[in-house]
Amino acid sequence: MIGELSEDLIMTGDEIDVENLFSDDGGEEETQVTPPAPKEKEDKENEKTTEEEEINPDDLFDNPESVGSGKDNQEEEEDTQSEKDKGTSPKTNFYSSIASALKEEGIYTVLINPNIATVQTSEGVADQIYFLPVTPYFVEKVIEKERPDGVMLAFGGQTALNCGVALYKDGIFEKYGVKVLGTPVQAIIDTEDREIFVHKLNEIDVKTIKSEAVENAIDARRAAAELGYPVIVRAAYALGGLGSGFCDNEEELDVLVEKAFSFSPQVLVEKSLRGWKEVEYEVVRDRFDNCITVCNMENFDPLGIHTGESIVIAPSQTLSNSDYHKLRELAIRIIRHIGIVGECNVQYAYDPESEDYRVIEVNARLSRSSALASKATGYPLAFVAAKLGLGYGLFDLKNSVTKTTSAFFEPALDYVVCK
Q1: Which residues, in sequence order, are bridge partners of residue 359?
Q2: For residue 27, how many other CB atoms are within 10 A of its CB?
């Protein structure tokens, strides 16, 4: 089963004094509540609870109980030795493998993730864990406290991307001297802002769906009238197609546009291609401009059913050899032009009758499709993407499965995987 992406941010630092991360006591102390009754059973139960009180956000960074703490030095040394023996983390998971990639380099990692029910937030995966919302306010507080050397934005889904863009625009990264590792923030903006995205692809003669980016309902109605119904409404900077859908008339448009603007300040009105195939390519690129396509996937349902809800087949089953290589070449050209470093996902609409195509979007991050591609091929996308973010080239990395061949290869599947 492939679940939702964790909303997280990973920070890195080389020389951080673990002893001084919290208050002088250097560790967590359990706050106990005085039991109201003398009964032994109630005493034991009450010892496990803490007092409920109103929380001041600023106190979260002074009180060790508000964050998860790393393990002691002896346990960390044992874990590190175990990872060296096995070549990977004992708690291997699509997202925890990112922390494993950083630990191999001896990098101290700080994770911000509000979800306590993931493997990624298990003890020993990251050196320091903050169970806090991934918002500019809280992330800036953590940066101020931890003073990391770098930050990785591409591993926390849409939430982390939006947060990272906001921090970049507010000058927070520059203020604290934090370097964005992997895909540059400008490349993220180029893929997330629909109007900029269309202009970028026009520069290399790649077809996109005829569309117009608008910022109010009046312009949305005008754009839809000019394009002709039916149209698709897409909210920019939104996760999983939030606020998007088809409109067959102006009445439906008004309802959907109002919903879309509640999620995003920008909405894209585009010509409907309902009924076309939806095909995706998972692409990896390093800073030396080497590119590979790890996997391509085909939605069983036609365009209009979001990938997260659709049956997905890897590799594609109905594309001809020429169709496959045509879309592969386009995906590589797009990623090189935008400047992605790490892993990303390119989504196409493809007309089986005319062999025409349109690029729907590019996700400059790990997505649900990335998790499927990684499991389908055995290629450790998250692990490799983290290494590439540190500056490695694809030719520098070993295949973590074979331990001998290079990671600079495209997997060949002689089987089919269905989600």
Answers
A1: 208, 348
A2: 11
